[in-house]
Design a protein that fits this description.
Blueprint lengths: L6 H7 L4 E9 L4 E2 L3 E11 L2 E12 L8 E11 L11 H6 L3 E15 L3 H19 L2 H12 L7 H9 L10 H16 L5 H18 L4 H18 L6 H15 L7 H15 L4 H17 L1 E2 L3 H24 L4 H20 L5 E2 L5 H15 L6 H17 L9 E4 L7 E5 L5 E6 L5 H8 L4 E7 L4 H4 L2 H7 L1 E8 L6 H12 L3 E5 L4 E5 L2 E7 L10 H4 L3 E6 L2 E5 L5 H10 L7 E3 L11 H7 L3 E3 L13 H11 L1
Parallel strand pairs: 4-6, 11-12, 12-13, 13-14, 18-19, 19-20
Antiparallel strand pairs: 1-3, 1-5, 2-3, 3-4, 5-6, 7-8, 9-10, 10-11, 15-16, 16-17, 17-18
Length: 639
């Protein structure tokens, strides 16, 4: 019988964000962040209640905690962030794949004792081996080797991760079946010199694989590969025939029993589908794997790589020697110069291939119907399922039809979506005729482009930039370079900046039409939709905090609905706008400068009289936005 721990049990442990004191055990290495140290802890007691749940803990960098430390702490619990935008990344569910329930921000710690059980010595060995790598190799090399040899990925640099991702060799960073093959080969070679009994050899291998799973962090790909080998070894010991598909299915069952959130683990599905392809599709290895995993890649990462075969061709010759020599160096340190040479070649291949234009092409998410029918047809072919030709033809027609749905939109209506980009602004407008207009793009490079692709928006008719502060334009550069954009609209610029020059260069390279506007201009998008430009003005240039105060301010009008976008203007610009326009009444106000106390004066809000006010602000931001005075003034403007 499968027993599933319900969400309600965890909700009862921590029903909401709260402060408190408690006792916990540290169960991870330290991961050094910019301002804090990160640990994984297991709660034993919190606010006089006994609990047993894992949390991510953030502590002062001055505090040095080690695996096994039993700590008394004072801190604040908060739930991990749910998806910020429609179809966006869900950090909470990602943590649940590792059985981590939430986050604890620790204010005070006292180390009570240290638990020196078996797990302590197990992790101490892992810690010592990791330190040995950092003593022999530079930070980039040691971080990479620590990830692929002992399962500690905390030291892998962001640059290296990006290079591997862009060159389609991210799978190299995961401990998988390839590791198991090499490890089993070496262990068998050693055992054969000592033991003659095949049964005893198999038992030793089984024990070793179980320990290896625990030692390397029990990733889904490692569990899948190890469990399949273990089942095969058990079958040999009891003189039963081992079946590949049965082994694959049992390893999947085990992973879901251990943690049902693994069903959302993309790495797990790539591992299973890749293994299935290698055995069941009689084509060249890389082609077979791509046939099964490429729809998942499209749906999850919204990218296609045409350099996959190049990078994986070279990697196939390198990764085996890197693993074998890596394990030798881990214990003897005799072949360091060879390992460094191989790593230099590997990193250079990832960098060169990752920089090629065809290495990462963004695509919109495929229709979910397409995915289902695609895999049904593939599995019919793989498993040679007898199915009437007419049904098969119908499925193929549905496959083509669902693919075509990606390029057409039906039942369009006017929509305005304010996106959560943290401390910044971004808004997407979709018209009745299917035109798309993006106003600002936040600061983070991938947030808005991911939102667009996940929501099957592969082109933009307009991008409007309020001004060139990074929290408004930082996310636009990736979009301008990788998505078809027909027009960009900016206000007249009275101050140069690095972001502005970068923007002009990208727009020119991609041959995008640019419209420079100022107060008095009207931009007609469709019959019932237009933008009136309210600011900036060449007749009244504001030199004080020039970039913010000369932000592009516009009023979008659609039938009886209107919305004012204010960029980061302050009260001096608001007063200037009021001198030009006495009545600014609007349905929605995008509040200026993230609710800063330097903006949103009483007179401006009274003129707008918004029914809804939107503030683009980051949670617990260091600026103190939104200001309490602004919130009170907004409240008064509604009355």
């Amino acid at each position: 019988m499968l027993v599933v721990i319900s969400e309600n049990r965890y909700e009862s442990l921590f029903p909401k964000e709260c402060k408190g004191v408690g006792i916990a055990k540290v169960i991870s290495f330290v991961e050094k962040k910019e301002y804090v140290n990160e640990y994984i802890i297991k709660i034993k007691k919190f606010n006089n209640s006994y609990k047993s749940v894992k949390l991510i803990a953030y502590a002062d960098k001055k505090l040095k905690l080690e695996y096994g430390d039993i700590i008394y702490f004072k801190g604040e619990f908060e739930k991990a962030q749910n998806q910020r935008n429609n179809k966006g990344f869900n950090y909470e569910r990602y943590l649940r794949q590792n059985k981590i329930f939430g986050i604890l921000k620790i204010d005070k710690i006292n180390i009570i004792s240290r638990d020196k059980g078996i797990s302590y010595y197990f992790y101490k060995l892992k810690f010592d081996l990791r330190n040995r790598l950092y003593e022999k190799f530079n930070l980039e090399e040691a971080g990479f080797l620590s990830g692929i040899l002992i399962g500690d990925k905390s030291g892998i640099t962001d640059e290296l991760r990006d290079n591997f991702k862009n060159s389609s060799i991210s799978h190299v960073l995961a401990i998988s079946g390839l590791h198991i093959i090499y490890i089993i080969t070496v262990i068998e070679f050693v055992i054969n010199k000592i033991i003659n009994s095949k049964k005893i050899k198999n038992i030793i291998l089984i024990i070793f694989l179980i320990l290896f799973i625990i030692f390397t962090g029990a990733s889904p790909s490692c569990i899948r590969a190890s469990v399949m080998v273990i089942i095969n070894l058990i079958a040999k010991n009891i003189y039963r025939k081992s079946d590949f598909l049965t082994n694959l299915a049992l390893s999947l069952d085990l992973l879901l029993i251990l943690n049902y959130y693994n069903i959302e683990n993309i790495g797990m599905w790539l591992s299973f589908l890749g293994t299935l392809a290698l055995v069941k599709i009689k084509l060249k290895t890389s082609i077979a794997v791509q046939i099964l995993i490429f729809p998942i890649i499209l749906y999850s990462y919204n990218t296609i790589s045409f350099t996959f075969f190049i990078s994986n061709f070279f990697i196939s010759f390198l990764i085996g020697p890197i693993l074998v020599i890596g394990y030798i160096n881990l214990f003897t340190g005799k072949l360091i110069f060879i390992e460094k040479f191989l790593l230099k070649i590997l990193f250079k291949i990832a960098e060169i291939v990752g920089d090629l234009k065809l290495s990462k092409i963004y695509v919109i998410s495929p229709n979910i119907i397409f995915l289902w029918i695609y895999y049904i047809l593939i599995f019919i072919r793989i498993f040679k399922i007898e199915i009437k030709k007419i049904i098969k033809n119908v499925l193929i027609l549905f496959l083509i039809f669902s693919l075509l749905l990606n390029f057409f939109k039906f039942n369009n209506c006017f929509k305005i979506n304010f996106l959560d980009v943290g401390q910044g602004d971004s808004c997407l407008v979709t018209t009745e005729k299917g035109k798309t207009l993006l106003i600002d793009g936040g600061e983070e490079e991938n947030t808005v482009i991911t939102y667009l692709l996940k929501n099957r928006i592969g082109k933009l008719d307009y991008i409007m930039v309020s001004h060139f502060d990074t929290d408004h334009c930082g996310g636009l550069f990736e979009i301008l370079q990788n998505i078809k954009v027909k027009n960009v609209i900016i206000g007249k610029q009275f101050e140069d900046s690095e972001n502005y020059q970068k923007f002009l260069k990208i727009v020119k390279e991609n041959k995008i039409k640019i419209h420079v506007v100022e107060a008095g201009k009207r931009i007609k998008i469709e019959n019932n939709l237009y933008f009136d430009i309210l600011w900036p003005s060449s007749n009244n240039i504001i030199m004080e905090n020039s970039i913010n105060n000369n932000s592009l301010v516009c009023k979008m009008v659609y039938k009886n609905f209107s919305c004012i976008f204010t960029g980061d203007i302050e009260k001096i610009a608001e007063k200037a706008i009021l001198e030009k326009y006495k009545d600014l009444k609007s349905t929605i106000l995008k509040v200026a400068h993230h609710g800063s106390k330097s903006s949103s004066i009483e007179e401006f809000l009274h003129s707008v009289k918004p029914k809804i006010s939107i503030i683009g602000v980051g949670k617990r931001n260091t600026f103190g936005h939104p200001d309490i005075g602004v919130l009170k003034r907004l409240e008064r403007s509604w009355k």
